[in-house]
Specification:
- With 163 residues, the protein is of the alpha/beta class.
- 50% of the residues lie in helices and 9% in strands.
- It has one domain: 5'-nuclease (Rossmann fold), CATH 3.40.50.1010.
- The longest helix has 15 residues, at 55-69.
């Protein structure tokens, strides 16, 4: 009887969570929260791990604050959203090489596309880096991210959530 050599376990897939996904979940946006949660847990069920660059913290806190200031959520709902975001961030992992490892590539992506999309460039750079070692998808509600990725990071798979 011959035995097959054991293969090394492959890296689990990675989902890069865009800040707009975190905002939708944390602030319980109608329609968007359930869609984002369903898709994230679908990936988790397939063994995918969740990642985001540090930019997710400032972007999400800013968006939640803007929602409160615009009267879209109450002060109580804002506090609840921040608490939900904190819980979500307990699941989302930091970039394996840290944010510093993304700076140069994000600069190159942003430099080729425009300053207004510089935060997106960091998420794209992370997706591109993670894709070198495992299947990776960048999850977003932003319709512009696929265009930016296709222009600057051809290997990046972007899944745009639409209601």
């Amino acid at each position: 009887m011959t035995t097959q050599p054991s293969s090394q376990p492959s890296q689990p897939g990675a989902v890069i969570v865009d800040a707009n996904v975190a905002v939708a979940i944390s602030s319980k946006e109608a329609g968007r929260e359930s869609l984002a949660t369903t898709v994230l847990y679908k990936y988790a069920g397939q063994g995918y791990e969740w990642f985001a660059p540090g930019a997710i913290v400032t972007e999400t806190l800013y968006a939640l604050c803007q929602k409160r200031q615009a009267g879209l959520i109450s002060a109580t709902e804002h506090g609840d959203a921040v608490n939900s975001f904190e819980v979500l961030m307990g699941i989302i992992q930091s970039p394996p090489g840290g944010d510093a490892a993304l700076v140069r590539r994000a600069y190159e992506i942003c430099n080729n596309y425009g300053c207004s999309r510089s935060a997106d460039a960091v998420y794209i750079a992370l997706a591109e880096e993670m894709d070198k070692t495992r299947p990776t998808v960048l999850l977003t509600f932003d319709q512009g991210v696929p265009k930016q990725a296709s222009k600057n990071a051809l290997t990046v798979v972007v899944e745009v959530l639409t209601i």
